[in-house]
Amino acid sequence: MDDPGAPHSRAAVLGHSGLEPHRRAALPGPVDGTWRYQWPAGSRFLAEISDLVPVAGKRVIDLGCGQGRLGRWALQAGAAEVLFADHSAEALDLIPDLPGARRLVHAWGDPLPPCDVLLGGDILYRADHFPALLDSVASALTAPAAKAWLVDPRTHLEPELPHLAAARGLRWDSQRRPASYTLVCVGLLPCETPVV
Ligand SMILES: C[S@@+](CC[C@H](N)C(=O)[O-])C[C@H]1O[C@@H](n2cnc3c(N)ncnc32)[C@H](O)[C@@H]1O
Asked: Among 44, 122, 135, 149, which residue has the most ligand 1 atoms within 8 Å of its CB, making it the best to mutate?
C-alpha cells in the first residue's frame, strides 16, 4: 500500500502525470520489471550520443524510459524539456525532479505530445507490441525534422519494422554501430547520421 503522504509515492507520480483514473485502470498489466535494469544498447548509445543527437533547446521524449538515463543525458545536454514516459509508475517515481523533467504514465499505443527528439533505449523487444509502439512514435513525430532514435543490441531486427514505420508515413534508417549496437533513426525525412 502506498503512503499517499510520501512525496514520491506511486499515487503522487500518477497525480503528477495527470493520468485520469479510468486510464490508470486501463494500463496493460502486469507491468514488466525491465525498468529495473540498465540495458546494454542504451549504455553503448550513451557513450557516443553527444556526437549523434542534437538536443539543445529541443523537446525530448524518453520512451520506455526505465531509469531514464537517456532523458537525463538530454537534460544535461541542454534539452528544453524531457518527457519521461513509461508504463511503470514505479520507474517514474525514481526519476529525479530535475528542471525541465516531466513524467507520464504511458502505454505503447497511446498518443504522445509532439517532440523534436524521441529516444528509445532497448524498447524493441516485444514484437507483439510493435504496431502500438510505432503508433505512439508516429504521434510524437509531427514536426518535419522530428526524429526518433531507437537502439537495440541485436545485429538484425525484425524485418517488419520498416514496413510498420512506412505504414505510418515514417522512414526507418537502421545502421550497425562499431560499438556493437543497432541504431535506428525514424522520421519523416532521411536521417543524416554522422559517422563516429
Ligand atoms: C528493456 S527496458 C529499457 C529501459 C530503458 N529505456 C533503458 O534503456 O535502460 C523497457 C522499458 O519499457 C517499458 N515498457 C515495456 N512495455 C511497455 C508498454 N507496453 N508501454 C509502455 N512502456 C513499456 C518498461 O517498463 C521498461 O522501462
From this structure: 122
